[in-house]
Design a protein that fits this description.
heterodimer, A: about 260 residues, 5-stranded mixed sheet, 3-stranded parallel sheet, 10 helices, 8 strands, about 15% strand, elongated, B: about 425 residues, TIM Barrel, two-stranded antiparallel ribbon, about 40% helix, binds iron/sulfur cluster
């Protein structure tokens, strides 16, 4: 009979589940997130208790069997939140632990290829956030931005922004997953807060943001228009680079969206 | 900041700067220092894209569009009746910092019309960079234009603050230059280029001995040529390019399809289409030379002075050299794999990795992402299904053109649709 291990959705929880498959010697097993797992007649359910010690043991074991890149990729693919990725990762982990050579480049194994492709997509989304975050300066001196990434990538963005904006306070908030990363001039903190829906309304702009903020956005919009070469217009290529769902981030495109 | 005045200047001076296609912000190793602002140690980021699909990475502006010269192909030329403007040094500094802090840009690309003599202009550009580095503790990317004719001392100083320096040769041939930019001499471009090259070499050797040697132009230098303004063949353009790569260790040579901006009879008239497809073919060739191990003589020579427009240069080459194919993807070495049409360098890497575990067949190749509809005429793999027929080059070409529904046909009627922008490697 197939066993389904249900975990809490955290990375530690997932690694605890992996530990359990070894501990209980499951051969036919599926690891699923709590909110997604639906009961079927043909499987047995078991709830995984997240245990950081067990998670750590799996993680350390992998460190010996994988390249640093391979190990990072497990985490990155996990952040994709794609349904079923846990089982591809379990396959990856089992092969890594049982085979002598590194298996992360065995692209003819469809599960490994799937992970490699997922990692690519996650990295791409991470880079998009590096690029498309637009800070606005709030009245209390905080550079503030909101995002709704396709994947849960903010943990991957933290270092990039910390290195770059070492001398300003900033906060990037994921509206979809309801948490943000905040840099207080010393270190990064994970925070949750209530973000008002009014925040981007034009009428509220000077309530939240500095007076110059709007002017800088306009300057940037102007720059964007001036730097374009009309006779080279190529919307297809343009959309390939910036699919429409990302336009909401880009203040230089807001006037166009309204039309 | 007086936003209204700045806005007006920005519009004029960004518009005048846009014809320089370089917007790269990669290749520098400048990391954040002492918790200051900015970091350019990464790979460079496109923060936006213009509607023509070009990357917006830097604040690209002229310091001023006043110019004493009259180069026919340039909007800023003296005889052109346009609005002129000039930024103050501090204005450029403030604008750069404000944009950078909001994550709009990776840094500044500052060029200028030659408003007095070469040195005065160069000096002013340096002042901006120096202020950014020393007063603002800015570690973002700075690209400065080397002004033709600028003195060695100034070029030395410029490289201490800038990540990249560039001087555009614009016209690929000397005769073209004489015709279109009579005020300019080839030596004037070469001089700052040579100085920058020497300084970079010197920096690299000193750095080995003395660790805290001040960094000099860590992202190297680049140049640009205008395509289609002065009648050169593709071979002339690419041989010039190869010369500059080699002679001056250029990081990049950019090709910019001429955008008609003047009724001057020496130039293509207004309304002439921008040669974007040709430009793209030149970039593909450039890529083949730099990353795929091709020699220029294989791609362009007396017999073939121009690139094909209907197919990419690697496919053209393969069709002229059918005797070298088919290549066995499970055995061939890296350099040979790189020569298969439809297989880019990334795919080469994947093949090399994946075949260590098992021999690859068509399904594997497709799953990895190889364009088999093009490459299948040139390879064999772990399968007995392969193109057995002895086809001629013309037959293969017509089969490929028929099958690729959009990529080639769409471009053939001069509408460039599906190509990547110049900052990203092209799958060739
Ligand atoms: S010197 Fe430069 S700015 Fe002046 S006209 Fe010639 S190309 Fe244009």
């Amino acid at each position: 009979m197939k066993t389904t291990l249900v975990y809490d959705g955290t990375f530690e929880g997932f690694l605890s589940a992996v530990f359990q498959t070894y501990e209980e010697k499951h051969t036919n097993v599926s690891i699923e997130k709590k909110e997604l797992a639906a009961a079927t007649f043909f499987s047995e359910y078991s709830c995984v208790i997240t245990d950081s010690e067990k998670a750590n043991r799996v993680w350390k074991g992998l460190a010996q069997q994988c390249t640093a890149e391979g190990k990072n990729n497990i985490y990155k693919a996990f952040l994709s939140e794609i349904v079923g990725i846990e089982n591809s990762l379990l396959h990856f982990i089992k092969r890594s632990l049982s085979e002598k050579r590194h298996i992360d480049k065995d692209f003819a194994d469809s599960e490994i290829l799937k992970i490699a492709k997922t990692v690519k997509m996650v990295q791409r989304e991470k880079h998009r956030m590096d690029a498309f975050v637009r800070f606005r300066l709030t009245k209390d001196g905080l550079y503030f931005a909101t995002v709704t990434p396709d994947f849960n990538v903010l943990p991957l963005n933290a270092r990039h922004f910390k290195n770059r904006y070492a001398d300003q306070k900033w906060l990037i908030y994921d509206l979809k997953r309801k948490y943000g990363i905040y840099y207080d001039l010393k270190e990064i903190k994970y925070v949750t807060l209530q973000v008002s829906e009014e925040i981007y309304k034009a009428s509220q702009a000077t309530y939240y943001f500095t007076e110059d903020e709007q002017a800088f956005q306009e300057l940037w919009q102007n720059y964007f228009t001036s730097t374009n070469i009309a006779s080279r217009k190529n919307m297809k290529l343009h959309l390939q680079h910036v699919p429409k769902r990302y336009w909401k981030y880009l203040s230089e495109k807001t006037p166009k969206l309204k039309n | 900041m007086n936003f209204e005045r700045i806005k007006e200047k920005l519009n004029i001076l960004a518009d005048a700067a846009k014809y320089d296609v370089s917007c790269s912000s990669s290749g520098s190793k400048r990391a954040n220092k002492n918790k200051g602002l900015g970091d350019s140690s990464g790979m460079g980021i496109c923060h936006s894209y213009t509607e023509d699909g070009r990357c917006v990475s830097l604040l690209k502006i002229l310091l001023t569009n006043h110019c004493i010269f009259d180069c026919a192909y340039c909007v800023t030329r003296k005889s052109n009746d346009i609005k002129r403007a000039a930024f103050k040094v501090q204005e450029v500094v403030d604008l750069t910092i404000a944009f950078y802090r909001r994550n709009y840009i990776e840094g500044l690309f500052l060029s200028s019309g030659i408003f007095k003599d070469a040195d005065t202009t160069m000096e002013r550009l340096i002042q901006v960079a120096k202020k950014l580095r020393e007063e603002e503790n800015f570690n973002g990317y700075i690209h400065l234009k080397s002004i033709p004719g600028a003195s060695d001392e100034l070029m030395r100083e410029a490289g201490l603050y800038a990540d990249r320096l560039s001087v555009n040769i614009e016209i690929p041939s000397e005769t073209g230059l004489k015709l279109l930019a009579p005020d300019k001499k080839r030596e004037d471009f070469i001089k700052p280029m040579q100085k920058v090259k020497d300084e970079i070499i010197q920096y690299k050797s000193e750095k080995k001995l003395i660790k805290n040697t001040p960094v000099y132009a860590p992202a190297g230098q680049s140049t640009q040529m205008i395509i289609g303004a002065s009648g050169e063949t593709d071979a002339e353009i690419m041989y010039t390019s190869a010369y500059f790569y080699k002679q001056f260790n250029m990081k990049r040579v950019y090709y910019s399809g001429y955008i008609p901006i003047s009724y001057d009879t020496r130039l293509p008239s207004i309304g002439t289409e921008v040669p974007m497809l040709r430009e793209n073919r030149l970039y593909q060739t450039d890529w083949l030379l730099r990353f795929y191990g091709f020699d220029i003589r294989e791609l362009l020579n007396k017999e073939y002075p121009n690139l094909d427009s209907d197919i990419d240069p690697k496919l053209s080459w393969a069709l002229r050299n059918l005797h070298l194919f088919p290549i066995d993807v499970n055995k061939a070495d890296k350099t040979l794999l790189a020569r298969i049409p439809g297989v880019g360098m990334k795919s080469v890497q994947k093949i090399l990795h994946a075949r260590r575990f098992r021999n690859l067949n068509w399904e594997h190749l497709k799953a990895i992402g190889i364009a088999t509809n093009r490459s299948k005429y040139f390879i064999v793999c772990d399968s007995n299904k392969f193109e057995t027929k002895d086809r001629t080059a013309a037959q293969i070409k017509s089969l490929i053109l028929q099958q690729s529904t959009s990529k080639y046909k769409a471009t053939y009627n001069h509408q460039l649709n599906l190509f990547s922008s110049i900052e990203t490697p092209l799958a060739i």
